[in-house]
């Protein structure tokens, strides 16, 4: 079951029902003692539980069910009613602090800082569809927890990847639509678009083809356009010599207490991306080393990649150009992607990238890039 279906489902697991029944006596005692202060809630009403007792129940469920599939009990708590949802959101910490993905909104929040989220990407060549799963074990064959899906479409001379929360509904008009990836004719320059504004005051992209719907506005809650949050560029190989790809990513990460510069960058050349002073975070792929004995380019993926492929890469942050003398940590890998099977790939990401951003960047690696290899 996907995160989206889990969130909208109101079915409780056996363990959660047992937890509720165990505390039902305490709820009735609390209601009997509150008669003198006002009208008592009907017995058995989920919304009428004391805030302290409700918070304690949700806190215990959250602490005991730290991994999927037991994590669905926490989602079930948020689906009871508006009051339960509000308290659950206050108790459940974001992925950057807890290292756990719980709600669909977590897919657009930064990952952990100390250790990466380990995920799997499975490809279906017949339907040009890609599925992102959260790895629940070290094995590459386990299905994992479904997070996102993407499908490749041909739009004239361009290619687009529509990213959705629902593997069976991959369209921009869907409620499950979260964003898209758009490429140029050569497949060497990409733009990442979010379906929702990344920060307050963000304006939809004015680039042609970035609109979700033909009309200007369907309803106030659904933006008619997409919001550009990043660019990915592959450097041309002028000498046409066989070697690893070289890529540069410019991502817009909202800073706490600051407004993100929404100005579009000029991505005509990779050098302009690297010298950007707009305050965006610039990532580049870590250069592999040539192994004389194996006669191939090598990177240390720490066992997370087992098949040699030109698609494999590791991204690190380069020097912060917005601050004089600023330096980037070029040893900490923020995103790594690699092949482990015919149609199975690993994706490990950490802060400041989110699952959605990391998935979109990895999508750019698929497809032939003759001018860059």
Automatic annotation (TrEMBL):
Tubby C-terminal domain mapped to chain residues: 107-368
Pfam family, one: F-box
Superkingdom as given in the UniProt entry: Eukaryota
Residue ranges constituting the F-box domain according to the UniProt record: 51-89
GO biological process assignments: regulation of DNA-templated transcription
InterPro entries given in the database record: F-box_dom (IPR001810), Tubby-like_C (IPR025659), Tubby_C (IPR000007), Tubby_C_CS (IPR018066)
Name of this protein: Tubby-like F-box protein
């Amino acid at each position: 079951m996907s995160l989206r279906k889990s969130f909208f489902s109101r079915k409780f697991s056996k363990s959660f029902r047992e937890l509720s029944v165990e505390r039902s006596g305490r709820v009735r005692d609390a209601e009997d003692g509150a008669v003198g202060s006002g009208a008592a809630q009907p017995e058995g009403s989920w919304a009428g539980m004391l805030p302290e007792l409700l918070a304690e129940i949700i806190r215990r469920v959250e602490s005991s069910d730290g991994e999927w599939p037991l994590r669905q009990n926490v989602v079930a708590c948020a689906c009871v009613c508006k009051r339960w949802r509000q308290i659950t959101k206050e108790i459940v910490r974001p992925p950057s602090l807890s290292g756990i993905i719980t709600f669909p909104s977590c897919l657009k929040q930064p990952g952990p800082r100390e250790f990466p989220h380990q995920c799997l990407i499975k490809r279906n060549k017949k339907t040009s569809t890609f599925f992102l799963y959260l790895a629940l074990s070290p094995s590459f064959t386990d299905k994992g927890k479904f997070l996102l899906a993407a499908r490749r479409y041909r739009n004239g001379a361009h290619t687009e990847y529509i990213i959705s929360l629902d593997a069976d509904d991959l369209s921009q008009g869907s409620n499950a639509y979260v964003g898209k990836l758009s490429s140029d004719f050569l497949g060497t320059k990409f733009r990442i678009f979010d379906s929702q504004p990344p920060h307050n005051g963000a304006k939809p992209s004015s680039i042609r083809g970035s609109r979700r719907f033909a009309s200007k506005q369907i309803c106030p809650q659904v933006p008619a356009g997409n919001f550009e949050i990043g660019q990915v560029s592959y450097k041309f190989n002028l000498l046409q010599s066989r070697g690893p790809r070289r890529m540069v990513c410019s991502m817009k990460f909202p800073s706490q207490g600051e407004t993100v510069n929404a100005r579009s960058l000029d991505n005509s050349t990779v050098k302009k991306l690297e010298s950007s002073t707009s305050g965006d975070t610039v990532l580049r792929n870590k250069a592999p080393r040539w192994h004389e004995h194996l006669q191939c380019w090598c990177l240390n993926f720490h066992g997370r990649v087992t098949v040699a492929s030109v698609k494999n890469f590791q991204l690190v942050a380069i020097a912060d150009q917005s601050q004089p003398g600023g330096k980037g940590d070029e040893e900490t890998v923020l995103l790594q992607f690699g092949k482990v099977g015919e149609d199975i790939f690993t994706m490990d990401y950490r802060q400041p990238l989110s699952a959605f951003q990391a998935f979109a960047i990895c999508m750019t690696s698929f497809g032939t890039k003759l001018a860059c290899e």
